[in-house]
Recover the amino acids of this structure.
């Protein structure tokens, strides 16, 4: 990036630096508040102080002792994980075909993927509910995996296509000339080139599946398949009239920490993945 | 899981032993699974633990024939209904006994989600129970749930500020306005079921009703409806109304009364033990009376609430579930629910009981009110109707009796045709 | 066609088959099923009273206040959030573009709102605006319950949406910023154009395609808003969005007929918005997949 040197440069640097600081505050304020709430004692929740005066882990204890939450965590990890694997796998096949092969219907598939990305999922909640309850898929892992996989496919296809387009596929020919078998050439040359793209896609697709709320609350009702967003929304307080603010805050922090970790470690990849679709071509 | 064991001489002798072990474990598990059928009782998580105790008592009384598992639902009645309805629509076999809000009877019965009680059992159960409670558990001349606890509203007032309780709404509002700042009236004005309860009670007090007796056509006669709406409007616009009326539910009203800055409150009986525990200075001057009448000389009629116990239609052990429900709703458990949880019983004789009268000093007034209590419209479409009513009547201060009477009729008509969208 | 081409076609279809099957089974089929359901009076609470009533459900929906109310609510939320997101997104993109200190930290922190579960974000803002446990009232010295009144509730909803989705917009716009050739900007500066003029006359026009794509997706996302409204108000105080209306009809009240009609109407609205952008603003999405 151009760095204008000299005196005006310092003012500019400070200006943009201040801007960055504001951006960071913008991004992290509600997160910081939730963390603070989760660490406050139950009685202090209403004291309006930004930082807790006395740090207490009671809400975290309550959350981990709650079987509802641990069931939800397990469901979320399993369902989002399996959906991601399926979506990335199917996406890889499709992206490969789109990028490397000429065939009628290529435009159609891309258009279909695009339309699914724009699709209002509320429109199929009713039919899915009715279909699943007759098929016995209501309140089951498979009942959520199927829609998750389908709705994350467009994202997977778009990002993988963008990455696959950048791969010099003919490099494997060079390896084969050198004596490697087609499979060896593929594994030793193509796979390392494709791996970063696949990895990024996996992260983004997982984040998407992890985030879903509408399907989760419509197609589940018990700990059998209820995911984290649904569980948090329906957290019942310990008493009839008390708002479970502390527990919800603690649960929110628990599910957000891994995201923050992933974002911290892989921010460059994630940004590359997100922007590849918009800019390429 | 089948593991292929390499067939050496040692395995040949240990394999039969292993097999026997595995078989015996399997048989034991199967026996366990058959042994004590588990009946799940879905009901809101009652704070005092009275429900859990009742479940435990009945499990013991069953002497190994069944086990009642208390499964908690969310505290909010709408959320409870939402969860139950969805699972019942999906044919959930895990739901054996349901702690039903009185307004769900018609809906659940019509949808085929409940098993009705047979005549003999029904007759046995109905003896000695409050007629209005039985009404709330019946639909089309059949009993769909056994009444367990009940509830209704009374007028609570400060005995140190008012000599004798007002008998009509006009009197109440006039008296409250006279008292000035401390004369606030606490009621429920949020856009939720409580608002519908308020309207339905007022309407019944002037002799009107939402639906015709057939339960399929709108009634809402113009005269009585306008009268009921005028009372609501008058209350909301009076200086005696709480400024937060439009967002007040039962608990907000209770809290406000307990601060001591109100003199009147229309609320359920749970406020009594609460005041005793949380605000003794207020409780020391707390009196009760029947809900104010709208027309002088015509006693008020209030909506009945409470919990009835229904049997899920997909239950795997319906006969046992019927038995268990009867046990839970029996006299001793009703007594427990009353003394521990502050929930009024449905067995009439208990209102003369010494222990009950100690817990509820207002037992006589309560029984009288319950005798005259009315059920909210008994139709499977009640949820839609209630939503329509509460949407139109919120906020109370903006009610226009003439216009809103017409709007209510139209909305309820649409709701009855399953065209309600709110 | 050569044999090689045929083989290529077959391979391609084989590779794409699972994707196509998934899309057909889980999206296309339910969509047609929804259309079918919308032609019936079908309430799961009266399973035996199911009957064909043609387009009556659509008349009911289109003649009810609730539908128009929720539609206008949704448009208010959409316009409010997308307009602010565009402006804020451009500002954030500029900051990220020009910053030298801690660029990594800026980008990481911006990804946090993007990565957070929407439900968690909405809860966080609900807590922030809560009169008892929140910091907003304390900071501004106010008393009211923001979520108890219609317009202040809208404010919180729109604020939460903006907070959560601007980072995504900003990242897309940042990528667009990098497309603007430095020489053009330098030439403009040599010609005497001020920073503002350079921005409006050179940068923005060149970013137009990226801006339009970002706007299209954000508008569609905003129109389909559900999680945020559900957590903040559940649709109370007349803040229902069309998706909340649909959810209430379908899942809360099990009225599959009426709810499906609402679903189809929402789908048509989304189509209309997409058509507006694609035909009206001339976004060319097809060039993107390459030759």
């Amino acid at each position: 990036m151009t760095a204008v040197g000299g005196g005006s440069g310092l003012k500019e640097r400070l200006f943009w630096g201040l801007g960055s600081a504001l951006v960071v505050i913008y991004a992290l304020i509600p997160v910081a508040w939730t963390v603070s709430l989760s660490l406050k004692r139950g009685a202090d929740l209403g004291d309006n102080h930004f930082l807790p005066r006395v740090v207490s882990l009671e809400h975290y204890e309550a959350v981990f002792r709650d079987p509802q939450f641990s069931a939800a965590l397990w469901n979320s990890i399993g369902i989002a994980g399996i959906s991601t694997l399926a979506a990335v796998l199917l996406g890889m096949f499709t992206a490969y075909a789109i990028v490397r092969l000429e065939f009628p219907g290529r435009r159609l598939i891309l258009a279909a993927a695009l339309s699914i990305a724009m699709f209002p999922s509320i429109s199929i909640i009713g039919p899915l509910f009715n279909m699943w309850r007759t098929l016995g898929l209501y309140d089951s892992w498979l009942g959520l995996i199927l829609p998750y996989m389908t709705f994350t496919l467009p994202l997977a296809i778009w990002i993988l296509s963008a990455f696959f387009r950048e791969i010099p596929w003919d490099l494997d020919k060079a390896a084969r000339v050198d004596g490697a078998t087609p499979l060896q050439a593929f594994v030793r040359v193509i796979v390392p080139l494709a791996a970063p793209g696949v990895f990024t896609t996996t992260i983004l697709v997982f984040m998407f599946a992890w985030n879903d709320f509408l399907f989760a609350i419509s197609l589940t009702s018990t700990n059998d398949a209820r995911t984290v967003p649904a569980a948090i929304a329906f957290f019942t307080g310990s008493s009839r009239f008390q708002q479970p603010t502390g527990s919800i805050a603690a649960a929110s922090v628990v599910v957000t920490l891994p995201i923050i970790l992933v974002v911290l470690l892989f921010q460059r990849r994630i940004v590359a993945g997100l922007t590849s679709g918009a800019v390429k071509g | 899981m089948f593991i292929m064991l390499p067939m050496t001489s040692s395995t040949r002798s240990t394999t039969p032993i292993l097999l026997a072990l595995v078989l015996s474990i399997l048989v034991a598990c199967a026996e366990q699974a058959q042994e004590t059928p588990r009946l799940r009782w879905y009901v809101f998580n009652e704070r005092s633990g009275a429900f859990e105790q009742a479940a435990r008592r009945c499990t013991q009384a069953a002497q190994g024939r069944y086990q009642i598992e208390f499964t908690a639902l969310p505290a909010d009645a709408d959320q409870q209904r939402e969860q139950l309805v969805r699972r019942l629509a999906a044919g959930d076999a895990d739901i054996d006994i349901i702690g039903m809000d009185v307004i769900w009877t018609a809906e659940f019965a019509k949808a085929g989600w409940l098993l009705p009680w047979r005549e003999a059992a029904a007759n046995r159960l109905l003896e000695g129970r409050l007629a209005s409670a039985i009404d709330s558990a019946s639909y089309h001349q059949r009993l769909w749930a056994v009444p367990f606890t009940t509830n209704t509203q009374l007028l609570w007032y400060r005995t140190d500020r008012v000599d004798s309780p007002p008998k009509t709404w006009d009197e109440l509002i006039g008296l409250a306005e006279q008292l000035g700042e401390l004369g606030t009236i606490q009621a429920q004005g949020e856009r939720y079921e409580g608002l519908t309860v308020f309207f339905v009670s007022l309407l019944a007090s002037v002799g009107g009703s939402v639906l015709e007796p057939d339960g399929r056509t709108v009634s809402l006669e113009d005269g009585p409806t306008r009268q009921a709406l005028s009372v609501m409007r008058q209350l909301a616009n009076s200086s005696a109304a709480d400024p937060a009326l439009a967002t007040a539910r039962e608990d907000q009203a209770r809290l406000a009364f307990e601060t001591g800055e109100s003199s009147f409150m229309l609320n359920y009986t749970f406020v009594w033990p609460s005041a005793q525990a949380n605000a003794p200075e207020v409780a020391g001057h707390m009196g009760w009376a029947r809900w104010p009448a709208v027309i002088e000389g015509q006693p008020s009629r209030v909506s009945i609430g409470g919990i009835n116990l229904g049997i899920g239609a997909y239950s795997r052990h319906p006969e046992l579930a019927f038995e268990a429900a009867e046990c839970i709703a029996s006299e001793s458990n009703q007594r427990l629910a009353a003394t521990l949880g502050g929930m009024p019983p449905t067995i009439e004789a208990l209102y003369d009981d010494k222990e009950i009268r100690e817990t509820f000093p207002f037992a006589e007034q309560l029984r009288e009110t319950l005798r005259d209590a009315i059920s909210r419209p008994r139709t499977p479409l009640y949820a839609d109707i209630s939503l329509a009513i509460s949407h139109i009547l919120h906020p109370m201060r903006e009610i226009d009796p003439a216009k809103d009477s017409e709007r209510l009729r139209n909305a309820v008509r649409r709701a009855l045709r399953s065209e309600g969208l709110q | 066609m050569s044999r090689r081409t045929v083989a290529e076609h077959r391979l391609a279809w084989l590779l794409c088959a699972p994707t196509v099957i998934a899309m057909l089974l889980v999206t296309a089929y339910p969509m047609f099923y929804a259309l079918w359901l919308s032609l019936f009076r079908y309430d799961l609470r009266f399973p035996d009273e199911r009957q064909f009533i043609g387009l009556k459900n659509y008349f009911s929906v289109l003649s009810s206040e609730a539908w128009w109310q929720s539609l206008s609510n949704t448009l208010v939320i959409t316009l409010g959030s997308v307009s602010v997101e565009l402006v804020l997104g451009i500002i954030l993109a500029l900051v990220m573009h020009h910053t030298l200190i801690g660029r990594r930290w800026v980008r990481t922190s911006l990804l946090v709102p993007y990565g957070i579960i929407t439900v968690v974000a909405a809860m966080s803002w609900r807590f922030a605006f809560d009169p008892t446990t929140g910091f907003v009232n304390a900071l501004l010295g106010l008393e009211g319950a923001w979520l108890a009144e219609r317009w202040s509730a809208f404010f919180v909803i729109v604020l939460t949406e903006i907070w959560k989705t601007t980072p995504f917009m900003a990242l897309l716009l940042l990528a667009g910023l990098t497309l603007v050739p430095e020489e053009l900007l330098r030439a403009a500066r040599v010609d005497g154009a001020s920073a503002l003029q350079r921005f409006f006359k050179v940068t923005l026009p060149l970013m137009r395609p990226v801006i339009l794509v970002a706007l299209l997706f954000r508008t569609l996302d905003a129109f389909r808003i559900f999680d945020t409204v559900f957590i903040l108000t559940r649709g109370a105080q007349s803040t229902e969005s069309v998706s909340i209306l649909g959810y209430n009809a379908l899942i809360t009240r099990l009225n599959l007929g009426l709810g499906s009609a609402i679903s189809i109407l929402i789908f048509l609205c989304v189509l209309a918005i997409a058509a507006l952008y694609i035909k009206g603003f001339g976004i060319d999405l097809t060039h993107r997949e390459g030759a």
Observations:
- The first strand of chain B starts at residue 38 and ends at 44.
- Chain B is about 45% helix and 15% strand.
- The two ends of chain B are 53 Å apart (CA to CA).
- The mean pLDDT of chain B is 87.
